[in-house]
Amino acid sequence: MDPSFTAEQDEIRRTLRELLHKRCGPEELRAALDTPAGHDPALWTALADRLGLPGLALPETYGGIGCPVTDLALAAEETGRALAPSPFLATSVLAAPLILALGTDAQRADLLPRIAEGRLTAALAVPAPHLTTALALGGANDGDWAGGGRAGGVQARRAGDGWQLYGEAAQVLDGHSAALLVVAAHTGGFVRSRALLFLVRPDAPGLVRQRQTALDPTRPQGRVQLRQVAAELLGNEDADVAGALSRTGDRAAAVLACEAVGAAGRALERTVEYVGRREQFGRAIGSFQAVQHRLADVYVTVQAARSAAYYAAWAAGRGERAGGLALAQALEALRTAAGEAVQLHGGIGFTWEHEAHLYFKRAAGDELLFGPVHRLRAHAADEAGLFERTEVAV
């Protein structure tokens, strides 16, 4: 592994940071959160036009740039620094790779170029709270997480030459606003039970969507209700859906780890700036040794998580799995950095007027969506066979 970045990667980071600094400051961020979609469409258009962000890791055949996963992860680190609310995670990190992996030639040719241009946003709808399981980050995804033939989840059944979906998926990232839904549904009853992925258009009769109140307002979520909604099967019935979800999950975990590291790093930077200005007993509180020790511990934690995240992104490009473990370390680093930010900002740290609480909510919200940390680590340990079970004779 070469730890240095290319000139192109440095340029991506620099340009993206400058654009987000101009277009996603504290005031712009709060204004975007209050919109029905929960993000600024104009910012998404700018990210698409200037950087090609939606199609950064898509093949050039479909209008993308064809960059490796590492470039996508480095871009996520910058969006994490700004807590930028955008369809980036739902569209480019979760939905687009699944369409690329499982879609028919016609589906890819129709959808991926529009995604790459930023004209089409998409969301992966998985029944809550099974997103981590579906992506094989917290356990094997060969179970009944999509519904299992019982009440709950989303059920799929044939309707003539097509399919119909019935059920509900909550806590869907951008599920209330995405122009295309990739819905995980259970089909086959109890005999040939399995999960398949389906494409649902926003104007489909019987589809009801609404934005949900989320702990982290910078991660807009929606509830998707399907009442005999016509759907198009993504790919074919013989597709390896579990394998595609697993590969997408590991890659998404690496990207999410870099995003969390970016947020943690920025929370630490803001805290260091503040303790250097805030005075108590006639001197800056950053000069107190106890404060310096606390921030030094946070710095070490963030840097270790950054190294793990970069390695996971590099490994994902080589087909190796390290995303889950890196995500666990990055989420823990973000929680630590955000917690210390609230503490060391004192009375203003938890107020709505200050941005510190947004980083704390991002840390807590991401653990609810993609964690918890101990589950990510336990699954990574099981996959690596670190703790072999032995039978003791009685």
UniProtKB/TrEMBL annotation:
CDD domains: ACAD. One of its GO terms (molecular function) is flavin adenine dinucleotide binding. Keywords: FAD, Flavoprotein, Oxidoreductase. Residues 254-378 form the Acyl-CoA dehydrogenase/oxidase C-terminal domain. InterPro entries: Acyl-CoA_Oxase/DH_mid-dom_sf (IPR046373), AcylCo_DH-like_C (IPR036250), AcylCo_DH/oxidase_C (IPR009075), AcylCoA_DH/ox_N (IPR013786), AcylCoA_DH/ox_N_sf (IPR037069), AcylCoA_DH/oxidase_NM_dom_sf (IPR009100). Belongs to the acyl-CoA dehydrogenase family. This is Acyl-CoA dehydrogenase. It comes from Streptomyces phaeofaciens.
